[in-house]
TrEMBL record:
GO molecular function: electron transfer activity; heme binding; metal ion binding
Keyword terms, alphabetized: Electron transport, Heme, Iron, Metal-binding, Signal, Transport
Statement: the UniProt record of this protein carries the keyword Iron: yes
Originating organism: Thiomicrospira aerophila AL3
Name listed for the protein in its UniProt record: Cytochrome C553
Range of residues in the leader sequence: 1-24
Organism taxonomic ancestry: Bacteria, Pseudomonadati, Pseudomonadota, Gammaproteobacteria, Thiotrichales
Top-level division of the source organism's lineage: Bacteria
């Protein structure tokens, strides 16, 4: 139940912040300008930056099901190359240009270290994971009351 609430919360945060990211993409700052702006603020940790990706890529970069590629355990250099390509708009993306657009080189590198350090574990597939609502025999769990 707790994990489900966290996922719902993350999805809500993504819905609220994405329109802002899309608007930022219209501003068309260069990579140098983005680095310059970010240099004026304290550097967040790789974990702090990377945790904002959880709404789509799963808690600790481990996807919940097959929806998004997992980031946990990703090769550091591959992550950096891809994030810079996303930032640059080197190829069309559904989401990632608008996400990557705001990160400086140092922030991308900090996230690369963070995700490379995480175990590349997948969450169990939905059909094998324990249901929050169903007992193993298919009967519905008692909802409500103390968990
Ligand atoms: C709103 C959903 C969403 C959020 C938030 C998000 N991503 Fe993504 N990510 C995607 C989608 C969708 C793709 C597939 C590429 C595309 O079309 O945008 C992707 C692909 C990627 C990939 C390529 C992985 C691979 O192996 O191909 C990387 C790396 C990545 N995202 C990093 C990040 C990081 C780092 C963050 C947080 C700073 C983040 N993403 C936040 C949706 C998201």
């Amino acid at each position: 139940m707790k994990i489900k609430n966290q996922l719902l919360q993350s999805a809500l945060i993504a819905c609220l912040t994405l329109p802002g990211l899309v608007m930022a993409a219209d501003a068309k700052l260069t990579d140098e300008q983005v680095n310059e702006i970010n240099a004026q603020f304290p550097m967040p940790s790789g974990k702090m930056l990377g945790d904002s990706c959880a709404a789509c890529h799963g808690t600790l970069g481990a996807e919940f099901n097959e929806g998004m590629p997992p980031l946990a355990g990703m090769n550091r250099q591959h992550f950096i190359d891809l994030m810079k390509a996303f930032r640059q708009g080197d190829f069309p993306t559904i989401v990632m240009h608008d996400v990557a657009y705001v990160y400086s080189d140092a922030e991308i590198e900090a996230m690369a270290d963070y995700f490379a350090s995480l175990p590349a574990e997948q969450w169990p597939a939905p059909n094998v994971r324990e249901s929050a609502f169903l007992n193993p025999d298919g009967t519905i769990k008692q909802i409500g009351g103390a968990q």
